[in-house]
Amino acid sequence: MARIRKKGMFIGLAIVLVIAVVAVGYMEKERLGMGETADAADSTAAMDSVSVAEGADKSDDEDKDDKDKEPPPVPVEVAEVERREISSYYVTTATLEPERKVDILAKIAEEVEQIKVEEGDLVKQGQLLCRLDDDAQRVALEEAKINQAQSKSEFERIESMFEQNLISEKEYLDAKYQYELAVNKYEAAAVRYEYTRIRAPFDGVITERLVDEGEHVNIGTRLFVLADTHPLQLTMYLPEGEIKSIRTGQMVHIISDANPDMQFTGEVIRLAPEVDQRTGTIKVTAQTRGDGIPGSFVRVRIVTDTRPSTLTIPRRGVVADAGERYVFIAEADTVRRLEVFVGYEDEGYAEILEGLELGDSVVVAGVGGVRTGTKIKIIGRPEDDKEAVADTVQN
């Protein structure tokens, strides 16, 4: 019995020992597992730090590349300094006026029976414009015609008798007087009859019609306004100092203020012989060589001097800033700002007195996008057009 209890105790102790060993081993295993996890976490964190550092370095490199990268060249158009003729002008304003303009008036009091023309119609000298009622004038003319015929017959009879010494000289002179009186009355009746026919006194255009058919007009009533518009004239008042360069026959350039596309020329035909003391100007009259509209407001340029061969560039290439005038001169693939001195200018070109030489290339389009040192790409040249066509064909 005692042996059995000792054996049981021995077996129990053995079991406890085994359980303790297993427990210790499990705890060690757990410890080792947590260390590996921590090491893995530390390794992951280190890798993340490296990645962040590498990303930061890469971003800094990209920013540096963006800063170092040059902007694209600015497209510009250039023109070479050339020799050409250029003139100076005196510019003023004026109104186109007909050379002749008249009011056509009624010469008798009658009713307007028929109107033959309207405003804007071109008419010839002697052309019928309108007709007034002519009944009374026609009757008077017929009566005067009959009286003239009777007086003529009677005078011829008296004259024959006088030649034969059958009547006295007094009777002859009385008959002659009556005949001449009848002739005058007939001619006066013919004139009054013709007053019922309103005709154009010269070639021109009807600018106003002031009456209607059926209207009764009195002597002196305005019927039409007739203007001779070929050629038109314009009157200018120039300062006394400018007259020394103006002469008769000198050409003028005329531009319509309402329609700048309407341009024509003219010439100076008269210079007033004295200065207006109130304004200090001299009246200058010019005559047009082209079509225009009477009453139009126009701008007039008078050539005061011409230089036949001088250095010029397109005006759009000249920049003005704070009283200074400058250009951008193209040099290889960049530009350089250069001050210039400008002389005469016209609508397209400017004379360069100082700053440029013949053949220099000047930026004339794209000026607003460049400054000294700006990289440029020249466009608009014939060779550029050829290259563009070749690229299109290849593509």
Would you kindly provide a written description of the structure presented here, covering whatever features stand out?
The protein has 395 residues and is an alpha+beta fold. It has 3 domains: 75-85 and 308-394, conserved putative lor/sdh protein from methanococcus maripaludis s2 fold (Beta Barrel), CATH 2.40.420; 89-94 and 231-306, Efflux pump adaptor protein, beta barrel domain (Elongation Factor Tu (Ef-tu), domain 3), CATH 2.40.30.170; 106-223, OB fold (Dihydrolipoamide Acetyltransferase, E2P) (Beta Barrel). It has 4 helices and 20 strands. A hairpin with a 3-residue loop joins strand 17 and strand 18 (349-354). Helix 2 (135-163) packs antiparallel against helix 3. It is elongated and about 180 Å long. The termini are far apart. The model is unreliable at 32-56 and 385-395 (pLDDT under 50).
Features:
OB fold (Dihydrolipoamide Acetyltransferase, E2P); conserved putative lor/sdh protein from methanococcus maripaludis s2 fold; six-stranded antiparallel barrel; alpha+beta; Elongation Factor Tu (Ef-tu), domain 3; four-stranded antiparallel beta sheet; 20 strands; elongated; 3 domains; 395 residues
Short description:
With 395 residues, the chain is α+β, with helices and mostly antiparallel strands. Helix content is 34%, strand content 38%. The chain has three domains: 75-85 and 308-394, Beta Barrel (conserved putative lor/sdh protein from methanococcus maripaludis s2 fold); 89-94 and 231-306, Efflux pump adaptor protein, beta barrel domain (Elongation Factor Tu (Ef-tu), domain 3, Beta Barrel); 106-223, Beta Barrel (OB fold (Dihydrolipoamide Acetyltransferase, E2P)), CATH 2.40.50.100.
